[in-house]
Design a protein that fits this description.
- By secondary structure, the chain is mainly alpha-helical.
- Helices cover 81% and strands 0% of the residues.
- The chain has 8 helices and no strands.
């Protein structure tokens, strides 16, 4: 891959995807048993909260092209991280179901902004022939990474 700037972008993009998807978007499902216990969530309410998180992800993904299309891909990436972080902090601090619900919505929206922003940043930074390789760390499903040989760079 060309240059330190592109390598730094791939590393930062991979971290952004890990936080926005791994922690913020999928965290609700991972902690659902604890949330059901702590907040006395019925299966219906738990499902509605999950649906809300997915809906906010979809809404952000639909709005993201407008933001990155105006040349604000770096701002969109920063906003994605900020929304994910704010949502995670609010989930951790939630004392009632209403706050938990809003927090899940906010956290889910970060992932919807992250991917479009990173694609636009790669398009601006990385030579055309190297873009698929630059996007590989955040577009390859996790099971593929788990099956790779240890010690290999994720973008080799």
């Amino acid at each position: 891959m060309a240059g330190r700037r592109a390598t730094a972008l791939v590393a930062a993009g991979t971290a952004l995807i890990a936080c926005t998807y791994g922690l913020a978007r999928y965290g609700y499902g991972l902690f659902l048993p604890a949330f059901r216990s702590d907040f006395a969530l019925s299966p219906t309410l738990a499902g509605l909260l999950a649906t809300g998180g997915f809906s906010s992800y979809c809404a952000a993904a639909l709005l993201a092209p407008r933001l990155v299309g105006t040349g604000r891909s770096r701002s969109a990436a920063a906003l994605a991280g900020a929304l994910a972080a704010a949502g995670c902090v609010a989930v951790a601090a939630a004392q009632d179901v209403a706050v938990l619900g809003v927090a899940v919505l906010v956290a889910g929206s970060g992932a919807g902004l992250a991917s479009p922003a990173l694609v636009a940043l790669v398009d601006r930074t990385v030579p055309l022939d190297q873009r698929p390789r630059a996007r590989r760390p955040w577009s390859t499903p996790a099971p593929v990474w788990a099956s790779r040989s240890p010690g290999r760079s994720p973008w080799s």
